[in-house]
Design a protein that fits this description.
The complex is a heterodimer. Chain A is α/β, with parallel strands linked by helices. In chain A, about 25% of the residues lie in helices and about 15% in strands. Classes of the chains: A alpha/beta, B alpha+beta. Chains A and B meet through β3, α9, α10 and α29 of A and α1, β2 and β3 of B.
């Protein structure tokens, strides 16, 4: 820094500094010009896709970004979000130094402090709350975009002793699908936006014939990787079906587009299951031998019967002997096993899993689905036929169905469809268990959560944790229950919020309630790369690194990639290190577990805390026989040749006893009838280290459909006053709550659009380009109307938005146009995972005289956000 | 035959992600509010839910008889003999915007900092350094291509030949004879200039066919 300043010639400085002791002239040092352009292989983190990037660096400055051809998923392409990394990095409004509040909250008065001071203050706050009220009164949060690593917050909370951390996504994004897959299959889920479906990226060789994109739009969520890949598959003739209320680019290019009524998805999925069963379109051999559908279920207990208690053995009905027999894993050729059946044995009623599945879906005829989902019956049938008759096929889910109360059921119903068709671990199918490098213990994220550090009595205090045990797959808390506890003080009063990414006031449901709740919190800490709405409520702001400054191990298909620190600006730190800094200081202040978290012997596989990213990675890269430094030099590198990395039919590979190893489920079969869900609700197994008190009601082993709480089908007071159903969906320019401060992106979309169809627009007097009011039972915002046939009648669409330009006004940027003022944080929630409602709720629309005050709408407005200095 | 470099767009491949717009912006240091290329949404048209929609990315069409060249008062705007690319000489341009007014494709824009006109030159500087244009390089859909459309051996000519019957050029009412080519198989071509079409849609005249 000293050299840099002295290298700048400032005329008059010498004269001005004469006689003033606090201005000391430095020795003049001229920096040698570094004209040689350096190219660093790194990986993007503008969204969660990790696309390979070539960062061009000249004179210590990033001057250009482009896609890295070595990346097998993006193949050298980079999208609008990724390319904007330069703007994000050199944004004039970065959080540059640790700040503490000196005025009132929201007044925008801050004092710069050293990191040591800031960490000390945060640690004292944490220790004070813990001593006065208990560690559980602190809650952490992550997510919202801008996540370099997802588990850091969870790890810290476990070590500090609070069971309360949440992600605004989780139960509303991805977790329901991960859970269904883990419970029923034991492998990776089929989410394209979460960088799965790796089989598809070998587009030339992948034999897939038909792809169903259900509530997902890869061309918008991940254009360079998943969007590119789906496009290539389409080009080579793969048939596609898209289920989405909005005409996305993928919907426009689909063979069949089903513009479904938002959040009626499970009803449609049930009709698909019914149709496939009724018309015997399922893969009978796979269903019989590799799923638990032929197994007999005790209709009283609702559990599959395992004679002798051995989970791999099950009771089946043998048609040959006309009696129940025990089927030993994996199969018994002597038996003629029945698939559908109901039997009374010893005065008790038993049904096969298939029979129970059929009974569950029986009422969902195509006619019923057409009526519930507002679709054409023939189109539904055509879609099912494309999916079921073009083998291999796959069904990929997106976030859409995660955002209403049917979240877990939709995830279950969707994978049941792929199971029925036998779309599992075959070449050309999404669900696979390919080889991994071993560097990452869990997919994509390396930080161990250290659950063992959280005492049992603290885990039991998790807000919402008893009722929604599905959250425990990610060891997480329930945001809506935390909000309720802040509002009511019951069962106890949370008092400190430590948050580390994105703008929670852009992504949490009914954010106005959170704003009000902050008044009941003694301390709020916010770590991020730039100021957000949350900054207005914070007491301490810690500056974190942009993705071009962070480091991370990344695995992309069979390639190990390094996100490398290309440059480093200001006093920013990687938040994975910041948590460690805080833990260390808490240890010094007398927190025993925080102290122990630095002891490698005690931490074992959970790894001792680190004071640099290098020290952290040096504990995990030895899985590839290298230090982090060596890994970076080597990356990107193949950890296995493509052919060896792709392992199909893992379930058929022999185990030690010479039997096929099966699936990672208790029965080693695909558990379509998944009684593990009952067990999960009662005890927390298999995710909790000990049984926890049961949820009020058992979870269902099979999917079921519940009409959304607010729905036009209810024809009640709410639906009459608010006649339109709101849905959301991705844009290619933004990720979650991030990038609204990037001039080049905001000039393309300065404010959010409200999509409305021409008929509804006429009814409500709305025109393209005009401002409109959008109102739900909970709040009122404005948006610019976009009248288009590309949204189903009766439905409107908006994407989340906030305005960094009005941060220092009374709105703090979140009140003008954010659809999350309208969403619903109150129950009913999804039973298993506690999902609240972000899509599929009722609104009304009316013309507005003008737009909100102070927001920026024309390109020239964004000039002050252009990069600092010249690129 | 004379060389004619031009962009060929496979519209069936364009996924409307706007990566090309941002890539161009960075590569060519385009000012806020201006852009050398633009992805238009063509549609949706038809009756719900049987709709048709595609994205059309448009940049300078490197016309055979460029209107911009004929109106330029200083000779700054010229069509190069050696490769058919229409260029603007920054030394001669006085920023009078005459070319902007006559371009039927809205492909010229004014740079308010330099106060001169700016347009796509197929990333001249990058090509000199052995690179391909930034929009093409970053295109997630691999929809964009460039090359000599007059050379039957060129990759773009072969691509066009393979798609015979599905190749379109933009509507030409003034005889500029645009060199840009568009391949569209999956949807019916909308015979209207993108900006005119978008305006019609916005005015509520959605059914243009």
């Amino acid at each position: 820094m000293k050299n840099y300043i002295s290298a700048i010639k400032i005329s008059g400085l010498q004269k001005a500094s004469m006689g003033r002791s606090y201005l000391v002239q430095c020795e003049k040092v001229l920096l040698a010009p570094d004209t040689q352009e350096r190219i660093v292989h790194t990986a993007c983190r503008a969204c969660i896709a990790n696309c390979g990037v070539l960062a061009h660096v000249k004179n210590g400055r990033v001057v250009k970004l482009e896609g890295d051809p070595a990346d097998p998923m993006s193949k050298g392409r980079l999208c609008a979000k990724g390319l904007s990394g330069i703007n994000a990095l050199y944004h004039p409004n970065r959080n540059k130094y640790p700040l503490v509040r000196v005025g009132a909250r929201g007044e925008g008065k801050w004092k710069r402090v050293t990191w040591e001071d800031a960490i000390d203050r945060v640690a004292h706050m944490l220790m004070e709350i813990r001593e006065k009220y208990g560690a559980e009164c602190v809650f952490g949060s992550t997510g919202g975009g801008g996540n370099p690593e997802v588990w850091s917050a969870a790890r810290f909370c476990n070590i500090f002793g609070t069971p309360n951390w949440f992600e605004p996504g989780s139960a509303q994004c991805y977790l329901p699908r991960v859970l269904a897959c883990a419970m029923m299959y034991g492998g990776m889920d089929a989410s394209i936006a979460d960088s799965n479906c790796l089989e598809f990226y070998d587009e030339e060789n992948c034999p897939i014939q038909a792809l169903v994109l259900w509530g997902t739009d890869p061309s918008y969520s991940c254009p360079a990787s998943g969007g590119r890949m789906v496009n290539e598959l389409r080009q080579k003739g793969v048939k596609t079906v898209v289920i989405d209320p909005r005409l996305t680019p993928d919907a426009a290019k689909a063979d069949v587009w089903l513009p479904i009524r938002p959040e009626s998805d499970v009803a449609l999925q049930m009709s698909w299951i019914r149709y496939i069963l009724e018309n015997k379109l399922y893969d009978e051999d796979f269903v019989m031998r590799w799923t638990n559908l032929p197994y007999l279920v005790d209709c009283d207990s609702r559990f599959v019967v395992h004679p002798g208690g051995e989970k791999t053995a099950a009771l089946v009905w043998d048609k040959k002997s006309n009696c129940a027999k025990t089927l030993q894993y994996p199969w018994d050729e002597e038996l003629d096993v029945e698939l559908f059946g109901t039997h009374e044995i010893g005065g008790k009623l038993y049904k096969t899993g298939a029979q129970l599945l059929w009974e569950r879906v029986e009422e969902y005829t195509l006619d019923k689905a057409a009526e519930l989902c507002w679709l054409d019956k023939n189109d539904i049938e055509k879609a099912i036929r494309i999916y079921a008759e073009n083998s291999p096929s796959s069904l990929c889910m997106g976030v859409a169905t995660d955002q209403n109360i049917n979240s877990e059921q939709s995830a279950m119903a969707a994978i049941i469809l792929d199971f029925l068709l036998g779309n599992v671990e075959k070449p050309g199918t999404a669900m696979q268990r390919f080889q991994i490098s071993g560097v990452l213990k869990s997919p994509n994220y390396p930080v161990p959560v250290a659950l063992k550090c959280l005492p049992k009595e603290q885990l039991e205090k998790r807000l919402g944790g008893r009722e929604h045990k599905g959250l425990s797959i990610w060891y997480g808390g329930h945001a809506a229950s935390i909000l309720k506890a802040i509002q009511t003080g019951k069962p106890y009063q949370p008092r400190m919020w430590i948050d580390r990414s994105g703008n929670k006031f852009g992504v949490l449901a009914e954010v106005q309630k959170w704003a009000e709740a902050t008044e009941k919190l003694d301390y709020i800490v916010h770590m991020f790369t730039y100021p957000t709405s949350m900054t207005a409520y914070a007491d301490v702001v810690l500056p974190t690194e942009e993705w071009l400054e962070t480091e991370m191990v990344v695995e992309t298909c069979n390639i190990c990639v390094a996100r490398q620190q290309v440059v480093h600006l200001w006093e920013t730190r990687d938040e994975t290190v910041v948590w460690s800094n805080i833990a260390k200081r808490c240890g010094e202040l007398g927190h025993e577990m925080c102290k122990k978290s630095f002891d490698p012997e005690f931490m074992g596989e959970d790894l001792a805390y680190w004071d640099s990213m290098e020290k952290f990675f040096d504990q995990i890269t030895p899985a590839q026989g290298v230090t982090w430094k060596e890994y970076c030099e080597k990356a990107p590198f193949e950890f296995l040749p493509k052919e060896e990395w792709k392992t199909y039919y893992v379930y058929k590979q022999p185990d030690e006893a010479g039997l096929p190893q099966g699936f990672n489920t208790p029965s080693k079969k695909i558990e379509i009838y998944c009684d593990s869900f009952i067990e999960l609700g009662r005890t927390g197994a298999p995710f909790m280290p000990y049984p926890l008190p049961p949820a009020d009601q058992d979870y269902e082993p099979l999917p079921y459909y519940a009409e959304p709480t607010e729905s036009p089908m209810r024809n009640d007071e709410i639906s009459r006053e608010f006649p339109l159903t709101m849905t959301n969906g991705r844009l290619p320019l933004y990720h979650h709550s991030t990038l609204r401060n990037i001039p080049g992106l905001r000039e393309m979309m300065a404010v959010p659009e409200l999509w409305i169809c021409p008929e509804d627009a006429e009814t409500y007097g709305v025109h393209t380009g005009n401002w409109v009011w959008v109102e739900s039972k909970r709040g009122k915002i404005r948006a610019k109307a976009y009248v288009t046939k590309g949204i189903r009648p009766g439905t409107v669409y908006m994407e989340r938005f906030w305005h960094p330009e009005t941060l220092n006004t009374p709105t703090h940027g979140w009140q003008e146009t954010n659809v999350n003022v309208l969403t619903r944080s109150e129950g009913p929630f999804n039973d298993v995972v506690g999902t609240h409602v972000l899509r599929g709720f009722q609104v009304k629309v009316s013309p507005a005289e003008s737009g909100p005050e102070g927001i920026w709408t024309t390109p020239a407005d964004f000039k002050s956000w252009l990069t600092v200095g010249k690129t | 035959m004379k060389k004619q470099y031009a962009i060929v767009v496979e519209l069936d491949r364009c996924i409307g992600c706007r990566g090309c717009q941002v890539a161009c912006k960075f590569e060519n240091d385009i000012s806020l509010g201006a852009s050398r290329n633009h992805t238009y949404t063509m549609g949706p048209v038809g009756s719900f839910p049987k709709l048709s929609m595609y994205f059309l990315t448009l940049m300078c069409q490197q016309c055979e008889n460029p209107a911009c060249e004929s109106v330029c008062p200083t000779g700054a705007c010229y069509k190069s003999e050696e490769d058919g690319i229409v260029r603007i000489d920054p030394e001669l341009c006085i920023g009078c915007k005459s070319c902007q007014k006559v371009c039927p494709y809205h492909a010229n824009n004014f740079n308010p900092e330099k106060r001169i006109m700016d347009k796509c030159d197929l990333c001249e500087a990058s090509r000199e350094a052995g690179e391909i244009p930034a929009c093409i390089k970053n295109c997630a859909g691999a929809a964009l291509h460039f090359g000599d459309i007059n050379d039957p051996e060129s990759k773009v000519s072969q691509l066009l030949a393979a798609n015979e019957g599905y190749v379109f050029t933009l509507k030409d009412e003034t005889g500029v004879n645009p060199s840009g080519r568009f391949i569209l198989r999956r949807e019916p071509w909308i015979e209207e200039l993108p900006h005119v079409f978008e305006k019609m849609l916005q005015e509520g005249n959605g059914n243009v066919r």
